């Protein structure tokens, strides 16, 4: 009598069915995990802009401002979005060269622009703009709280900027404030 090695067709189909079932059960959790990682990645990019703006304020011994970017459909920068506390297009970092401390953007003052992918991120800030003073601190030494939300997953995280101008990225949560 000959001995056989290998799998029968029924054994292979059963193993494949078990793997597909496990994949179907894991997919929603994996999707949520990937969206949370994407939100963390966006928060790190925003923290990078905050670090850059603070560094430019210290290096240039001048105020540096951050505001909600006002972009055309082709993503061409138009300046700051006026009276917006929801920053959903991106962040503009600029140094007001001729304004005498008014913090009004006009062309050729851009230091950095971070553009958000449409519909992937919404950021709520309690003010229309943030200002890093020449000493690297936020204006009036008051901290700021930036709430980053993922409209796709309903998750959010809080990025806190201390009065000294240092950002701290919080944890991803599913219970976002309204």
UniProtKB/TrEMBL annotation:
Compartments, as annotated in UniProt: Cell inner membrane
Pfam families named among the record's database cross-references: GspH, N_methyl
Domain of life: Bacteria
Residue span(s) of domain General secretion pathway GspH: 43-164
Keyword Transmembrane helix: yes
Membrane topology, from the record: Single-pass membrane protein
Gene3D superfamilies according to UniProt: minor pseudopilin epsh domain (3.55.40.10)
Family annotation (InterPro entries): N_methyl_site (IPR012902), Pilin-like (IPR045584), T2SS_GspH (IPR022346)
Key words of the record: Cell inner membrane, Cell membrane, Membrane, Methylation, Transmembrane, Transmembrane helix
Family label: Belongs to the GSP H family.
Protein name: Type II secretion system protein H
Species, as recorded: Chromobacterium aquaticum
């Amino acid at each position: 009598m000959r001995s056989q090695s290998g799998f029968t067709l029924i054994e292979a189909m059963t193993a494949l069915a078990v793997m597909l079932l496990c994949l179907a059960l894991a997919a929603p959790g994996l999707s949520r995990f990937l969206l949370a990682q994407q939100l963390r990645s966006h928060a790190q990019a925003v923290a990078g802009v905050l670090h850059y703006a603070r560094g430019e304020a210290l290096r240039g011994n001048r105020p540096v401002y951050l505001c909600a970017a006002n972009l055309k459909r082709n993503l061409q920068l138009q300046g700051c979005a006026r009276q917006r506390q929801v920053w959903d297009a991106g962040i503009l970092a600029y140094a007001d060269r001729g304004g005498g401390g008014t913090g009004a953007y006009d062309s050729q003052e851009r230091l950095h622009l971070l553009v958000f992918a449409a519909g992937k991120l919404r950021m709520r800030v309690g003010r229309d703009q943030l200002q890093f003073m020449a000493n690297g601190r936020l204006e009036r030494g008051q901290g700021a709280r930036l709430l980053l939300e993922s409209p796709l997953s309903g998750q959010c995280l809080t990025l806190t900027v201390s009065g000294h101008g240092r950002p701290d990225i919080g944890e991803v949560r599913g219970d976002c404030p309204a």
